[in-house]
Amino acid sequence: MMDGTLPETVFGLTGEVLTGLMPMAVVLSQSGHIRLAGPTLIRLGGDAPLVGRRFLEVLEPVRPRDIRTIADLAPLMGKRLMFQMRNHAATPLRGHVLPLDGGMGGGSGFGQGLIVNLSFGINVAEVVRDHALTHADFAPTDLTVELLYLNEAKAAVTEEMKALTRRLQDAHQLAAAQALTDPLTGLGNRRAFDEALMRAIAGANRGVPFALMHLDLDRFKAVNDTLGHGAGDQVIARVASVIRSEMRIGDMVARIGGDEFVIILSGEHLPDSILRLGARIIQQVEQPIPCSTGVARISVSIGVCLSRQPESRDAEAMIAVADAALYESKRDGRGRCMISTAG
Amino acid sequence: MHGLVNRSFQLFLRDTYGLALWADVAADCGISADGFEAMLLYDRSLIEQVLASASARLSKPQRALLEDYGAYLITFEPVRRLLRFGGIDYPDFLESLDELPGRARMAVDDLILPEIELRPGAAGHVALILKDGWSGFGPALAGVLRRMADDYGALALIDVSDDGATVQVNMLEERFAVGREFRLAGAVA
């Protein structure tokens, strides 16, 4: 597919050897006409003959743009130039121009003419695809094919890394959810409660009040002792579902111990409505609970602390106040709900 | 051992023999059924345990398993394509195999394959000498070369020495059949 060879050899190299070494090279006459073109460049040119045409008619200078005549190339010898094929604008090419007589001097005296070697720019993959180039279109020393190889290898590895990241992210989210969940009831656990309480206190400082209820089951130990731990678990699950059914969106329930629950009620709550809520929970929890080994009868004592109280800026202090109210309920005969009046 | 090897061997067992076999092998080796991550590094003893367990459970010699594993790798289009970059035809591909470890490192810098020395013999015959590295690579490479011969449309006989360190390739016909298509920039960007 050679486009014709030079009648004479260039410094002992035949045209065939020259374009074998540099399949995208062109040799230009003093006047800028193509005397020899490499086979790969001919392919890029759409397999039309290039010999005899003016170089600047075949290739458009991109950088620098103001190359109008072949003489304009003189000061650009040895520099990295950018061209594109005029028949295929999406083919950016790097160019390297040198005089054939070896002189690097300026002026327009190119003596025996010029040699221009070209190579692919950074968009090599698209050019190679558009022109369906193969290994055979590149000199064996050319690393362009390796560039394409690397491009694909990188894509494959990146895909694998993304898959790994997705799996790790899923595992992380699952672990995070599990770390905040009580597995028996599906309620929040102690950690979830601690975080929710911190958020609620921060909210209270911005003017959004809340109430903290601390619930402790009464006579639960007797269930475990007489009906077994399986029954104990069933009782806990039942209490959890009772509490959950009384909650509204925005409220938070956690199981923070064997038979201890906490509730964070968001928003403004009148003491009366909290006491009524406590009474409803107590009334339902006191219903006999059928278990696989018998019927459990328990109750629940509740202590409440309101965020309006002075201790409300401190999580531990709030818990202590709710605990004190809970203790009051227990001492008062259990199955009660008391709101702390401390402070 | 690079996780790519462990992971692909896991997928080979799973896809070829089923999830139950893989789960049994994983249990034998004390690893989770999720198995390996392709981009992590593992102790070499792990792949050896996996191989030994699979070989025992399937009553199949380790070498035969590894050859099948090598062939399985080529079913992954990115792997097939990356290998096809090695040469324009099968002889060209074979001659480029001493660059394979370098190419592997170019793709994944901690993927270390044994150095491969090419010893061309009589026409169409070449011996590949694997230096150092895990002895399982030889049989796996044989499986890869066999499948790549098909891919290029060549007819070749491939043999592994007992120690797994030498792979003999005897190419009978360069153009035996129509090979699969390969374009240098074929994958859609």
Describe the structure.
The complex is a heterodimer of chains A (343) and B (189). Chain A has 343 residues and is of the alpha+beta class. Chain A is 39% helix and 22% strand. Chain A has 10 helices and 13 strands. In chain A, the strands form 3 sheets. Chain A has a 6-stranded antiparallel β-sheet. Chain A has a 5-stranded mixed β-sheet with strand order 8-9-7-12-13, with helices on both faces. In chain A, strands 10-11 form a two-stranded antiparallel sheet. In chain A, a hairpin with a 5-residue loop joins strand 1 and strand 2. The radius of gyration of chain A is 42 Å and the shape is rod-shaped. Mean pLDDT of chain A is 88; it is low at 1-7. Chain B has 8 helices and 4 strands. Chain B has helices at 3-17, 19-28, 44-58, 62-73, 77-84, 90-95, 100-107, 137-152; strands at 115-120, 125-131, 155-160, 166-173. Classes of the chains: A alpha+beta (343), B alpha+beta (189).
